[in-house]
């Protein structure tokens, strides 16, 4: 963990209200691997998850070298795709010549926007593979922006102890005064909380802006409680904010500890038309995306790769 100060426990904040709790379902994805899907399925309407479109968990699962098929060449338009790798390694490349390797703890924040065609998850060296892919919708005014990559190595993603026995990895947004390095077009929080057995942390208050009205917590390991609601691995908890914000959610782990992704976002409240790898505002725009892909004009701009040493590379 980075050497951030451990904070003293704050006074309890007004509690959020429970909207829904359900188990993530499992399904095949990519070239045939199995994922758990807490966001993007029948349990949760797009309007409730807004601005989040999808969250998939791959693994943890053991693969022999070269066994994992990855997600072969496929297009995207109209949203951000976020790959966060907990364990393992995988290469990625796109049709414009950009390429790289994600390793354990790394995150790739890809703004597909106007269009990109890429291949991801190849060349896993064998061993445990565990990761998450999240889709974040873009507002209409940014859907046709040039694409952009933010490949973020684990060592620059803030990871600290906001409370004894609690680790917070701030992939996007802020937690207890610690800000992520990723810059997002839509205001969101994406935090990976890992709680040791019998630990507690309350997230909210000044760390959770009132505009972040959508709150989704996905427990991916262990058990405990989220906002007073019992939860175990695979549970998805959807919470409602109090008017004006200033509220919070208490994460509590049981005897085996608990790990959870905390997602908070500002709803776009725009029409959503989606089909496969495209998310736009109208059916006509979806049809245009398919036509562009079929005739080879989907990719209009070469993606920019952000170097977190301070240099942007084309």
Task: Describe the 3D structure.
With 314 residues, the protein is mostly beta strands. 5% of the residues lie in helices and 54% in strands. The protein contains two helices and 26 strands. The strands form five sheets. Strands 1, 13, 14, 17, 18, 19, 20, 21 and 22 form a nine-stranded antiparallel sheet that branches. A hairpin with a 4-residue loop joins strand 7 (89-94) and strand 8. It starts with 16 loop residues before the first strand and ends with a strand.
What's the short version?
This protein is mostly beta strands.
Q: What is the CA-based Rg, rounded?
A: 19 Å
Mean pLDDT: 89
Number of strands: 26
Low-confidence stretches: 3-9, 310-314
**What does the main sheet amount to?**
9 strands, antiparallel
Helix and strand sequence = EEEHEEEEEEEEEEEEEEEEEEEEEHEE
Strand fraction: over 45%
- Structural category is mainly beta
* Count of runs of 4 or more consecutive helical residues: 2
Ends apart, CA distance between termini: 32 Å
Helical amount:
under 10%
The shape is: globular
């Amino acid at each position: 963990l980075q050497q951030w100060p451990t904070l003293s426990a704050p006074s309890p904040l007004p509690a959020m209200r429970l909207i829904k709790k359900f188990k993530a379902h499992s399904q095949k994805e990519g070239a045939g691997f199995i994922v758990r899907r807490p966001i993007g399925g029948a349990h949760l309407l797009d309007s409730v998850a807004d601005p989040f479109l999808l969250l998939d968990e791959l693994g943890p699962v053991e693969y022999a070298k070269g066994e994992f098929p990855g997600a072969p060449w496929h297009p995207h338009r109209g949203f951000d795709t976020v790959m966060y790798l907990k364990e393992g390694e995988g290469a990625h490349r796109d049709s414009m010549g950009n390429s790289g390797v994600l390793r354990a703890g790394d995150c790739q924040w890809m703004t597909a926007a106007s269009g990109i065609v890429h291949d991801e998850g190849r060349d896993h060296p064998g061993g445990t593979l565990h990761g998450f892919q999240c889709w974040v919708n873009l507002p209409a005014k940014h859907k046709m922006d040039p694409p952009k990559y933010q490949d973020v190595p684990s060592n620059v993603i803030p990871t600290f102890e906001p409370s004894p026995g609690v680790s917070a990895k701030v992939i996007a947004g802020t937690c207890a005064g610690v800000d992520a390095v990723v810059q997002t077009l839509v205001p969101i929080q994406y935090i990976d909380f890992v709680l040791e057995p019998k630990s507690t942390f309350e997230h909210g208050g000044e760390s959770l802006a009132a505009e972040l009205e959508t709150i989704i917590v996905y427990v991916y390991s262990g058990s405990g409680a989220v906002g007073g609601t019992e939860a175990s691995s695979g549970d998805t908890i959807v919470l409602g904010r109090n008017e004006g914000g200033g509220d919070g959610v208490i994460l509590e782990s049981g005897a085996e500890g608990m790990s959870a992704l905390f997602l908070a976002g500002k709803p776009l409240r725009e029409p959503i038309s989606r089909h496969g790898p495209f998310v736009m505002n109208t059916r006509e725009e979806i049809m245009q995306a398919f036509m562009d892909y079929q005739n080879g004009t989907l990719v209009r701009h070469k993606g920019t790769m952000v170097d977190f040493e301070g240099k942007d590379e084309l």
